[in-house]
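Hi both,

Apologies for the delay on this - the queue was longer than expected. I finally got the zinc ion-bound model through. Below you'll find the protein sequence and the ligand SMILES exactly as submitted, and right after that the structure tokens for the full complex including the ligand.
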Amino acid sequence: MGLNYTIDCRACGSHTEFSTTMRCQADAASALHIADHIDTECAIRCPVCRARLNTSQTEFLSQVSISLEA
Ligand SMILES: [Zn+2]
């Protein structure tokens, strides 16, 4: 059980994929709601150029996609 993140950074044009492993199904379920509740106070940054991806929820969703891997 894990989450796959795909980042398409508009600042540098990089395409980055990474995944996280969830400890339990509840974690994965709550993580799926990340897209509905983007935290714009804590910066999420591009791993390549460090550009901030979550200046707004719209900005985040247009550059980052999250999918669940069973
Ligand atoms: Zn970037």
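Main takeaway for now: The two ends are 5 Å apart (CA to CA).

I'll put the files on the shared drive as well.

H.
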